[in-house]
Fold:
Amino acid sequence: MYELGQEKERTYRDIYQPHIKEVNPLTSFIQKLNQKNTTVGLTTMGDQPNIDFILDGLNIRNYFQEITDGA
Structure:
């Protein structure tokens, strides 16, 4: 059952890849927080491959000092 779930997630990433788009003004908001030395964290129930997919797809990983996933 676990493998079936992982296959579903891989399929989601393959289909969604061309549609990754930032919700404006996410990056500018996070940049302003970083400039004010505010720690920025991300908490999600997503699994690590999906977190990597979005953060790296939007090139925003470096703005987060802490990342907590569903595990």
Observations:
- The chain has a mean pLDDT of 95.
